[in-house]
């Protein structure tokens, strides 16, 4: 169906009943390091073709939420570009949406109305090979957006973005309650953008959800009229990743428009990978992100927000799958980030059913990023596509060759919160490493020793101090320091390297407990009595509470083995696993991880259960 765009209309929207809270130009949404004034400059340059920045949506939303605090000269410049400051949210809508100018046709399909033209610089290719009176380009766009909406709304269960059918008669809603997509000529750098408009009809409550939102806002999407040049994929693939990314923004705006931009952008990139897994457009953000692991996971910055998708990729692969990401967004509604940053709490709340939290997932991702393998030997630290990633691992902070009999120190003053640094250790004799937080609480920082063995297995020790014995045969040894909390204001630290001891079950061993390799391994429930279980031996040199449990390679716990206090004992405590879950059911054949956690140390050992 084609038709003419509705005529120009002008009327001021009635304000919401709630009090508008105006923040200073510091821009709470963007974080204290960012300002709404900077967002304004980016947007002004974008709409005057003076920028090469690829991403516009977060800056448009920042202006929408905090634009009233801008200086008058920037307000004036934005008004010349069609921005309207007469309502609670600052948008580009007042009468006719600027993007609608010149688009004299539309096509309704599913929940969408697609606006386009066949003439002038905004024209789409008029080729119509299927003779349905709709250009093939519009057919491709329509099919893609409807497939994306079906996946996100119908299959994954997210709420549809709030509608605009209730707009006053002289406000442009695209002519219907459909979600509007404008196909236009854009700056050469842009894939597309999502423009926020007004709080949802019922005082910020999305009419399509079953819960009460406070900050749900309407929006529309603008995409290109061609993607032939300047982009890393073919035209259809560029349409696909743009649709997945921007439509998920529209969904996010319907949940909590005040949620932090890093969470919006990182999960939008993750959504591209979920829906269009073979395109891998997200790979373009990985090199710069992995080059700077010391930068905060939630730091401001165009590409850094996008590269942080790897955190949600780890969660999706090992901590509950895509359902966990949806729970995070569900929690964002309840937590309401209008007055503070609750993004990390939303993540913790979403991870709770997986017995995890924000810091736990962060530490596990840091380890996985150093291992960077899709091998089953990487266990809960594997990425499915690791061998295809355009990186070989995160940047190394320092490489240190340890000399026996000499204390060596490594100091850092540039680790940001929710970030990590990796130091490579070259050693021929045992080394003990101690981490000291020189600027804040000790538990703000976590130390991991990550080793790859000559057999391709991985060993991870989490402790400070931690003893590393190279006699076990390691291809490489890395230390990862993680700033996992934000109780302090800085994250300076020192690593001290001293002589360690050769691993043995003697009283002078530095670890306060140890987990031996399981045996037999593999084991088989269908064979002899001996092979119907695997032995788990734990030696305790410092009395403490020990937890032992089994997880599958997705990180989901399948069985609890032990949880209790163990006194010092230099012969092993012996436990067994019979290949069954906590209610006695046999678990599927495959590779599992035995995890033992003590006061300071954690150990992972693989075990294979045969049919």
What does this structure look like?
With 611 residues, the chain is α+β, with helices and mostly antiparallel strands. The chain folds into three domains: 28-279 and 319-356, no CATH class; 394-499, Jelly Rolls; 513-610, Immunoglobulin-like (Sandwich). It is built from twelve helices and 22 strands. The protein has helices at residues 36-46, 57-66, 72-79, 136-155, 235-255, 261-275, 286-291, 302-307, 309-318, 322-335, 343-351, 358-371, and strands at 105-109, 112-116, 179-184, 192-199, 217-224, 396-401, 408-412, 420-426, 431-437, 445-453, 458-462, 466-468, 474-483, 493-499, 513-515, 523-524, 534-540, 544-552, 557-566, 569-577, 590-597, 602-610. It has a five-stranded mixed sheet. The chain is elongated, with a radius of gyration of 27 Å. Mean pLDDT is 88; it is low at 1-12, 14-32 and 505-509.
Helices and strands in order, then pairings?
Layout: H1 36-46, H2 57-66, H3 72-79, E1 105-109, E2 112-116, H4 136-155, E3 179-184, E4 192-199, E5 217-224, H5 235-255, H6 261-275, H7 286-291, H8 302-307, H9 309-318, H10 322-335, H11 343-351, H12 358-371, E6 396-401, E7 408-412, E8 420-426, E9 431-437, E10 445-453, E11 458-462, E12 466-468, E13 474-483, E14 493-499, E15 513-515, E16 523-524, E17 534-540, E18 544-552, E19 557-566, E20 569-577, E21 590-597, E22 602-610
Helix pairs in contact: 1-2, 4-5, 5-6, 6-9, 9-10, 9-12, 10-11
């Amino acid at each position: 169906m084609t038709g003419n765009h509705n005529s120009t209309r002008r009327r001021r929207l009635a304000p919401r009943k709630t009090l508008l809270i105006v923040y200073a130009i510091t821009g709470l949404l963007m974080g204290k390091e960012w300002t709404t004034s900077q967002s304004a400059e980016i947007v002004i340059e974008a709409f005057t073709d003076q920028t090469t920045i690829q991403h516009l949506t977060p800056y448009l939303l920042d202006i929408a939420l905090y634009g009233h605090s801008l200086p008058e000269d920037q307000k004036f410049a934005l008004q010349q570009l069609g921005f309207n400051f007469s309502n609670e949210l600052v948008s580009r809508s007042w009468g006719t949406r600027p993007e609608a100018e010149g688009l004299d046709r539309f096509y309704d399909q599913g929940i969408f109305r697609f606006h386009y033209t066949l003439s002038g610089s905004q024209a789409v290719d008029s080729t119509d090979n299927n003779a349905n009176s709709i250009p093939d380009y519009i057919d491709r766009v329509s099919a893609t957006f409807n497939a994306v909406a079906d996946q996100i709304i119908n299959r994954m269960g997210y709420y549809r973005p709030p509608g605009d059918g209730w707009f006053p008669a002289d406000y442009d809603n695209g002519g219907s309650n459909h979600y509007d997509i404008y196909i236009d000529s854009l700056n050469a750098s842009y894939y597309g953008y999502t423009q926020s408009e007004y709080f949802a009809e019922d005082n910020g409550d999305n009419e399509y959800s079953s819960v009460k939102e406070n900050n749900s806002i309407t929006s529309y999407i603008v995409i290109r009229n061609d993607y032939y040049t300047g982009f890393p994929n073919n035209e259809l693939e560029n349409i696909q990743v743009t649709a997945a990314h921007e439509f998920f923004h529209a969904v996010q705006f319907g949940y909590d428009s005040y949620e932090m931009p890093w969470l919006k952008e990182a999960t939008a990139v993750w959504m591209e990978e979920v829906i269009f897994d073979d395109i891998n457009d997200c790979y373009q953000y990985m090199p710069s992100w992995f080059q700077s692991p010391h930068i905060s996971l939630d730091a401001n910055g165009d590409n850094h927000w996008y590269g942080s998708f790897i955190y949600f990729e780890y969660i999706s692969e090992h901590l509950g799958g895509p359902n966990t990401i949806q729970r995070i967004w569900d929690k964002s509604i309840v937590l309401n980030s209008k007055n503070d940053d609750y993004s990390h709490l939303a993540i913790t709340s979403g991870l709770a059913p997986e017995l995890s939290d924000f810091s736990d997932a962060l530490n596990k991702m840091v380890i996985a990023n150093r291992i960077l393998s899709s091998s089953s030997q990487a266990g809960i630290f594997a990425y499915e596509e690791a061998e295809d990633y355009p990186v070989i691992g995160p940047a190394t902070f320092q490489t240190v060759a340890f000399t026996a009999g000499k204390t060596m120190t490594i100091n850092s003053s540039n680790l940001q919160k929710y970030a990590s640094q990796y130091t490579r250790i070259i050693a021929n004799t045992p080394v003990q490493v101690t981490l000291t937080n020189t600027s804040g609480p000790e538990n703000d920082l976590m130390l991991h020793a990550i080793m790859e063995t000559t057999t391709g297995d991985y060993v991870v020790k989490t402790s400070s101090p931690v003893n590393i014995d190279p006699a076990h045969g390691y291809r490489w040894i890395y230390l990862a320091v993680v700033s996992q909390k934000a109780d302090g204001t800085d994250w300076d630290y020192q690593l001290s390297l001293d002589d360690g001891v050769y691993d043995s079950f003697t009283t002078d061993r530095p670890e306060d407990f140890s987990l031996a390799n399981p045996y037999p391994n593999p084991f088989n429930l269908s064979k002899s009595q001996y092979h119907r279980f695997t032995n788990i031996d734990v030696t305790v040199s410092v009395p403490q509470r020990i937890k032992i449990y089994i997880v599958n390679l997705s990180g989901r716990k399948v069985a609890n083995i032990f949880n209790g206090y163990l006194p010092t004992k230099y012969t092993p405590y012996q436990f067994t696993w019979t290949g069954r879950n906590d209610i006695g059911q046999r678990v599927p054949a495959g590779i599992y991880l035995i995890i033992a956690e003590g006061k300071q140390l954690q150990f992972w050992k693989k075990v294979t259960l045969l049919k």
